[in-house]
Amino acid sequence: MTASRTALTATAALLLTVALTAPAAHADPPGITEDTTAPVHIDATNPNLRMVQGAKLAPPKVLNIKSIVESDDGSESRQDTNDNITFALQAEVLFSKDSAELSTDALARISAIADEVRQRHATNLRVFGFTDNLGSAAHGLVLSKQRANAVQRELAVDLGSSVTFQIRGYGEQYPIADNSTEAGRRKNRRVEVSFPRSGG
Prior knowledge:
Elements: H1 2-21, E1 67-70, E2 76-80, E3 84-90, H2 91-94, H3 104-120, E4 124-130, H4 137-159, E5 164-169, H5 182-188, E6 190-196
Parallel strand pairs: 4-5
Antiparallel strand pairs: 1-2, 2-3, 3-6, 4-6
Helix pairs in contact: 3-4
């Protein structure tokens, strides 16, 4: 009986030693401690969590997603939204310096825009011209309008009389880049052609 009790005591002591020295089975990684705080209590009866009697949720709204693709040299870009498609061509790829006469290279680019207009069955186009802020504002307004007119005339040749045009020359208004650098001014000297995605 004494020998049996001694063996049980030794076994219990051994198990206690193993339990005290063995690592926990779910030990946290070094530097991370287990969060033992209780979760935040939410009172389901709180009136601030409920809509006022008779209130309605606002109608669902489709966000206007904008996608912009620019050529490697930045000379042209295409911007797509839910509502419109806008092509922006830098003046350098369309005209000589301080000129509103289209270059040979410009004709192919404008023809590609006309193809897109036909595919979309668009009948209302906006052609807007812009300049940088060098020179007088009055000269910029005139030049930007002349350039918008030149692009519109070429589009009209490709598209015929079924398309209505809105033409504006904005001069140095609405810059899209920093006019204090030549790279920025180059982006600002541009003609934009836009039309609704729906074709209207």
